[in-house]
Amino acid sequence: MATIVLGICGSIAAYKAADVASSLVKGGHEVHCVCTPAALKFVTPLALHTLSRNPVICTMDDETADWMPTHITLAQKADVLAIVPATANTIACMARGLAPNVLTSLYLATRAKVLLFPAMNTLMWEHKATQENVQILLKRGHDIIGPAEDGALACGSTGKGRLVPVEQITNAILDRL
Ligand SMILES: Cc1cc2nc3c(=O)[nH]c(=O)nc-3n(C[C@H](O)[C@H](O)[C@H](O)COP(=O)(O)O)c2cc1C
Questions:
Q1: Given ligand 1 and candidates 6, 8, 9, which is best to mutate, with the most ligand atoms within 8 Å of its CB?
Q2: The domain 3-175 belongs to what CATH superfamily?
Q3: d(CA 175, ligand 1 centre) in Å
Q4: pTM of whole model > 0.90?
Q5: For 103-132, what is each residue's pLDDT tens digit?
Q6: What is the per-residue burial (b if ≥16 Cβ within 10 Å, else e) of 137-166?
Q7: 8 CA: nearest ligand 1 atom
Q8: Which residue has a Cα nearest atom 26 of ligand 1?
Q9: Which residue from 35, 51, 13, 1 is spatially nearest to 163, judged by alpha carbons?
Q10: What are the structural domain ranges in the chain?
Q11: Is residue 33 annotated as a catalytic residue, yes or no?
């Protein structure tokens, strides 16, 4: 049984992280969801708590279970950190070592395998800034899976940017264990 930290960012695709959590729990793994503040606009801690069977960490106020901050405990415990979905903002923070929230702080404190599953508008994905940040993370040894090549996006356009399918996400996480 592995410990998987599921980082969830503020994307319209965030609700799919609930399916990923459920699937990994059914596979017998320990799943801890860590949400950015923006993710809470798209998913509820209650749903993620129920499906992951563990408390959800969103802000520093949730870090009171022990004297050690939960983002440090989870960072040390994790076998895999999977960011589902990874937004342009969080990709940028991770690439540049910025830690404005619990998830990005946990990232800096972990030495677990890191996988990112981006989802965003095509122009955001193709922007030089995002592509430079992606290259930094790849060079650091992280896996970046997706976005899907083509499809209808929630923003109304068509193109590259969709989160890859849930089954592909869970398989990629399990492959890295
Ligand atoms: C309806 C809506 C959908 C959004 N979807 C995405 C998305 O899929 N990908 C993305 O990178 N940003 C998206 N954003 C913008 C992010 O929510 C915003 O950049 C936020 O600061 C990300 O914060 P986080 O990276 O800390 O989660 C969306 C914003 C709105 C209002």
A1: 9
A2: Flavin prenyltransferase-like (3.40.50.1950)
A3: 28
A4: yes
A5: 999 999 999 999 999 999 999 999 999 999
A6: beeeebbbbbbbeeeebeeeeebbbbbbeb
A7: 27
A8: 36
A9: 13
A10: 3-175
A11: no
